[in-house]
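Worked example

This section walks through a single chain of length 131. The input is the sequence exactly as stored; nothing has been trimmed or padded.
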Amino acid sequence: MEVRMTLPARQINSALFRGVFIVGPSPTDHPLVPEDNPVSVEKTRAALLRLEEFPDDDVALNSLWEENHQLIEREMHRHFRSSFSDVLLERILSGLASQARFFCDEFDEPIAWVARCANLETRRAALELRK
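Given that input, the structure is written out below as tokens.
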């Protein structure tokens, strides 16, 4: 768990360094992240690295869905709060595939990265639907 603390905005004179207290779990700490399952982690890593090179690879995208469908569905339920269509799911998975080029194997944990990216993609889709 990452804990970051900064000074309250009123104690900082520079506009560049204004911030807030952030105490608690990092946004990437998800209860459904199965870090103890090395097979799932490696399948997710392999799928992300494949999608980085070939974003249209259906086999890699299918593997990513199979290993992380709980995380992706949870984010979709969180942002859409009702049943969602296959079109929305396809849109979210397409976004994950296009974002895979930003996955850095040396620094990112694969499943936590998918959870964070699924959150961003579902938020983006929800905001676009509200317009």
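What to look for: The chain has a mean pLDDT of 80.
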